[in-house]
Amino acid sequence: MKVKVLLFASLREVVGSSQSAVELEPGASVEDVWTRMISLYPRLAPHTGTIAFALNSAFTNPHEALHDGDEVAFLPPVSGG
Questions:
Q1: How far apart are CA 11 and CA 43, in angstroms?
Q2: Which of 56, 69, 3, 68 has the alpha carbon at shortest distance from 34?
Q3: Concatenated DSSP letters for 8-19?
Q4: Quick check: 20 pLDDT over 70?
Q5: How many CB atoms lie under 10 A from the CB of residue 30?
Q6: Do 34 and 66 meet the contact criterion of CB atoms below 8 Å apart?
Q7: What is the pLDDT of residue 81?
Q8: Antiparallel, parallel or unpaired: β 58-60 and 2-7
Q9: DSSP 3-state assignment of 42?
Q10: Cα 6 vs. chain centroid, distance in angstroms?
Q11: 2-75: which CATH topology?
């Protein structure tokens, strides 16, 4: 199955693009997308454990199952005042 990946802020800078697409086996989870992105872009690895996950525009947990055509977003922590 194919899913669209959206990357924000520092994650976008690491990858060099705000979006990507990945192919995964049926039954894959949001976490599997993150693992695939790390394999493609190893500089994403230090962000593990600090990012938020969204599936089809709603925050979700990393174990959420995916379907073909889903949109997964990875968001780094936000700071500021």
A1: 9
A2: 3
A3: -HHHHHHHTSSE
A4: yes
A5: 22
A6: no
A7: 57
A8: unpaired
A9: helix
A10: 7
A11: Ubiquitin-like (UB roll) (3.10.20)
What burial class does residue 53 get, using C-beta atoms within 10 Å of its C-beta: 0-12 exposed, 13-18 middle, 19+ buried?
buried
Domain range list for the chain: 2-75
Query: Distance (Å, rounded) from C-alpha 38 to C-alpha 59?
Result: 20
**Beta carbons of 70 and 6 less than 8 angstroms apart:** no
pLDDT digits (tens, 9 = 90+) for 22-81: 999 999 999 999 999 999 999 999 999 999 999 999 999 999 999 999 999 999 987 665
Q: Does residue 5 contact residue 37 with C-beta atoms inside 8 Å?
A: yes
At residue 78, the pLDDT reads 79
